[in-house]
Amino acid sequence: MTTVQIVDYVEQGQSLYIQLKVVDAEAGTTVEGEVRFWGELLYGELIHEKKSPLTEEARIETITYLKTHFGR
Q1: Of 32, 42, 60, 68, whose CB is crowded by the most CB atoms within 10 A?
Q2: Which residues are CB-contacts of 48 (< 8 A; sequence separation ≥ 6)?
Q3: Beta-carbon contacts of residue 5 (< 8 Å; ≥ 6 apart)
């Protein structure tokens, strides 16, 4: 099971910057990074399809959690 911990976040205009820590249970790793919502769109290497250090399952769970948590 993937655990997502929001460390900090700040809203600036349409942008929302989020510092988070993700425990990827499948890979047995913990990854810290930053992602950004610009309106409804979510950006960042942490959740990027090809650049993410997370397993696919953890990446999808992280995206789902962030969209639900911030209502975007």
Answers
A1: 42
A2: none
A3: 20, 21, 22, 23
DSSP string, 13-31: TTEEEEEEEEEETTTTEEE
pTM assigned to the model: 0.93
pLDDT tens digits along 5-38? 999 999 999 999 999 999 999 999 999 999 999 9
Q: Using the 8-state DSSP alphabet, how is residue 47 labeled?
A: G
Buried b / exposed e along 3-32 (16+ C-beta atoms within 10 A): ebeeeebeeeeeebebebebebeeeeeebe
